[in-house]
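FAQ

Q: What does a record look like?
A: Structure on top, sequence underneath. For example:
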């Protein structure tokens, strides 16, 4: 056991100054069987600590029902085994380019703007969540023989609000749940952010990608004493679907890292290893300075242009950072560890054609939730759908002339059918989510809208924005009332459920060729399995499962063109791939 404290100028471990050289690695973005390798890579780069968020929505899909909470403890045990310390950031809000910033959709759907405030109902849910989660963290604190040195209270709150009562309450809840190591906050190095996001008596840290000296000068105006730390040194960045890939030159990032260390500060490299947004958990942003522009959904890869790439391999940035960090090793620490061998890769390419498929209506019938009926379209949150899609059905009365058919409050994308014929694809524009079919529609008619969430906003004032149809469907200016809605959740795609789904061989000559639906592909892997990349030439957009493991969303818009498949997901011999295509299917998939 040891004592970790915050001194006048330094972090102190049993009274001796210590510099934290940390790297962000999110356990939920890395396959569990590969945690050990990634942690060893952090040590080999020259780091002595790892930082992770904890996403509330991943672990509490419904109020009071928890899913694999033990993963947090198992990861912290792996950290200790790797010889690293740990920083834990349990939120309740985490941002992290993660769906809804880590807040459960059932929570934001019910409470709306009351989240992240000193609201009794919201804090009651936080208290229950912390009570379930934090015993695992508390038991692994450094003063109990574990690796956890610090725990964060909330996350970048100064970018969102100024409710000091809320921040104090979060800090009190952390302490009440057994957190005895130092607490900290992290915010941008701006006066208004530090004013809104700091708590008296809690260490403030700052997040930035460059300009360390200037950033720490701002921090010192608000916190004259205490160790300096950049809690997020942005060494790269994330990508959005339909936009250019983002990167940062290794030499530039290494210079910025060196400047932080020259200031005598501690650092957390964000990200040291980004990993993957498996299972459709990627978040989204709203464009524009006021976050009121088009939705910018984040891609499945969270490579982040990090020093350790998505597949766990060292990059040019890794070697540049290792060179910088080596210069700041404490006296007597000895040489850096050897760089681990890269994970095994697939021994050879595998390609296979679709062997059977089920149309999307059949998939909904077999795997969908119960149908809801009412006068107005419900949101995803009202239906209990976090990730996936919802089919809305309406009857347009008649006879009536052709008029524009439009949707207000569309989030995010809808495939529209009129009397069973595809009439177009709608994309909700701006925060009002307005869209209209290109051709007018006459009545009577049966209208179906298959609406897909592209990821909930994870940062800014649009946090908690509902998905689905948040207003209504209009013919001319008249609302069309009487709606039936049915959700298809990604979590419904289990091996048992899909096995019962009636499928049929695709007919290349049929009119329905390439239609939306669930396609099943058998892939033969010769030799020992290893890490691979899945390519879907000719497919448009949807989700992929490999042997029941959801590797995430694909989209022909790019910039991501292949999905990372961790080696532990594959087996030697026969492997089954499910492709849920939502617009237009190809005929084959390839693994390389």
């Amino acid at each position: 056991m040891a004592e970790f404290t915050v001194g006048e100028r330094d972090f102190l471990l049993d009274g001796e100054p210590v510099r934290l050289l940390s790297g962000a690695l999110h356990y939920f973005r890395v396959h569990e069987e590969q945690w050990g390798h990634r942690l060893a890579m952090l040590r080999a780069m020259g780091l002595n600590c790892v930082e992770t968020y904890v996403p509330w929505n991943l672990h509490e899909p419904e109020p009071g029902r928890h899913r694999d909470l033990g993963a947090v403890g198992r990861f912290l045990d792996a950290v200790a085994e790797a010889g690293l310390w740990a920083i834990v950031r349990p939120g309740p809000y985490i941002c992290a380019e993660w769906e809804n910033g880590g807040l459960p959709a059932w929570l934001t759907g019910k409470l709306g703007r009351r989240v992240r405030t000193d609201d009794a109902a919201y804090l009651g849910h936080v208290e229950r969540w912390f009570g379930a989660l934090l015993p695992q963290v508390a038991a692994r604190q450094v003063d109990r023989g574990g690796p956890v040195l610090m725990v964060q209270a909330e996350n970048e709150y100064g970018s969102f609000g100024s409710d000091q009562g809320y921040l104090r309450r979060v800090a009190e809840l952390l302490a009440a749940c057994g957190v005895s190591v130092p607490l900290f906050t992290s915010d941008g190095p701006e006066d208004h952010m530090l004013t809104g996001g700091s708590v008296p008596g809690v260490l403030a840290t700052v997040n930035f990608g460059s300009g360390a000296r200037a950033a720490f000068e701002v921090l010192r105006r608000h916190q004259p004493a205490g160790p300096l730390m950049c809690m997020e040194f942005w060494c790269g960045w994330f990508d959005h679907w339909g936009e250019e890939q983002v990167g940062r030159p290794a030499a530039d990032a290494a210079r910025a890292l060196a400047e932080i260390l020259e200031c005598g500060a501690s650092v957390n490299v964000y990200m040291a290893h980004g990993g993957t947004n498996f299972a459709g958990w990627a978040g989204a942003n709203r464009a524009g300075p006021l976050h009121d522009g088009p939705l910018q959904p984040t891609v499945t890869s969270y490579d982040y242009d990090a020093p350790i790439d998505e597949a766990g391999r060292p990059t040019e940035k890794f070697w540049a950072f290792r060179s910088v960090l080596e210069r700041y090793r404490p006296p007597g620490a000895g040489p850096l560890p050897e760089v681990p061998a890269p994970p095994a890769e697939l021994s050879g390419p595998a390609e296979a054609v679709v062997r059977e498929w089920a149309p999307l209506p059949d998939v909904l019938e077999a795997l969908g939730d119960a149908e809801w009926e009412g006068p107005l379209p419900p949101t995803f949150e009202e239906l209990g759908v976090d990730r996936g899609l919802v089919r809305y059905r309406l009857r347009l009365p008649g006879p009536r002339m052709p008029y524009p058919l439009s949707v207000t409050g569309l989030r995010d994308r809808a495939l529209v059918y009129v009397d069973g014929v595809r009439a177009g694809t709608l994309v909700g524009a701006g925060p009002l989510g307005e869209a209209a079919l290109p051709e007018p529609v006459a009545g009577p008619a049966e209208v179906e809208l298959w609406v897909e969430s592209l990821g909930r906003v994870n940062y800014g004032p649009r946090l908690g924005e509902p998905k689905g149809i948040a207003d209504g469907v209009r013919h001319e200016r008249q609302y069309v009332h009487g709606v039936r809605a049915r959700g298809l959740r990604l979590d419904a795609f289990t091996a048992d459920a899909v096995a019962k789904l009636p499928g049929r061989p695709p007919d290349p000559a049929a009119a329905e060729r390439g239609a939306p639906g669930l396609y099943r592909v058998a892939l033969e892997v010769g030799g020992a399995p290893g890490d691979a990349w899945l390519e879907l030439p000719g497919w448009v957009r949807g989700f992929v499962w490999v042997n029941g493991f959801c590797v995430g969303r694909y989209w022909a818009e790019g910039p991501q063109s292949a999905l990372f498949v961790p080696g532990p997901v594959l087996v030697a011999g026969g492997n089954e791939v499910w492709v849920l295509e939502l617009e237009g299917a190809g005929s084959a998939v390839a693994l390389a």
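Q: Is there anything notable about this one?
A: The mean pLDDT is 96.
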